Amino acid sequence: MSTSRTYWNLGRAALVVAAWCASHSAQAGLFDDDEARRAILDLRQRIETLRERTSAEDTQLRRSLLDLQSQIETLRGDLARVTDQNEQLTRSIAAMQQRQNAIDERVKKTEPSTVNLDGQEFTADRREKTDFDAALEVFRAGQFAQAQTAFADFIKRYPQSGYTTSALFWLGNTQYALRNYKEAIKNFRSMLSLSPDHAKAPEAVLSVANCQIELNDVRGARRTLEDLSKAYPKSEAAQAGRERLAHLK
């Protein structure tokens, strides 16, 4: 029973008492004193019973509200802990993903990949490609002394690399630019020995002849140019070699 309902009942009981008293005054002759006392005592007992019941209901209601409030606070605490755990889990997952990405990136840097260079296909790791490209950039920048060191170091560092033949070719060109003709001839011939079918092989033969001309080895240059025309007759280098041969004395 609700509190408002209980108080309404108490009010109604009071009205009943008042009405009874009025009736008793008007009809005093109908009841004797004992009956009146008993009626009043009975009514008082009813009122007291209603009061006690109301008090018990109020106490129970307060307890229920306190229990409910306690449950709400407990749920709030549980929700806060779950939220904190979710945030920690999210941060942990993000950190793990970053570490995995870093590992994947390191693997990619060392993982061999297929390279197609000067008509040759081979596998090489990223470090080889990076070092070769860096040396070639130095050469193209006209820094021939630095390029010579870079290509020589590359060949020493990666003796079995698929880039080796191309590295020998560019090393020979840096040495030609530095007028180190004998070393240039040596490296061009090493390149031709490793890969006579290399896309730059005709250019390497022509470069050998050019080095021999600079060294005043005309006989050797004639022989090299003739070999060039025979080995690679349709190449642009062979055409240039034939023109060069016609002007040699």
Topology summary:
Blueprint: H1 3-26, H2 33-110, E1 113-117, E2 120-124, H3 126-140, H4 144-157, H5 164-177, H6 181-194, H7 201-214, H8 218-231, H9 236-247
Antiparallel strand pairs: 1-2
Rg over C-alpha atoms, rounded to the nearest angstrom? 54 Å
Shape: rod-shaped
| Order of the strands making up the biggest sheet | 1-2
| CATH H-level superfamily title of the largest domain | Tetratricopeptide repeat domain
Please, could you describe this protein's structure?
- The chain is mainly alpha-helical and 249 residues long.
- It has two domains: 3-105; 113-247, Serine Threonine Protein Phosphatase 5, Tetratricopeptide repeat.
- Helix content is 80%, strand content 4%.
- The protein has helices at residues 3-26, 33-110, 126-140, 144-157, 164-177, 181-194, 201-214, 218-231, 236-247; strands at 113-117, 120-124.
- A two-stranded antiparallel ribbon has the order 1-2.
- A hairpin with a 2-residue loop joins strand 1 and strand 2.
- The chain is rod-shaped.
- The mean pLDDT is 84.
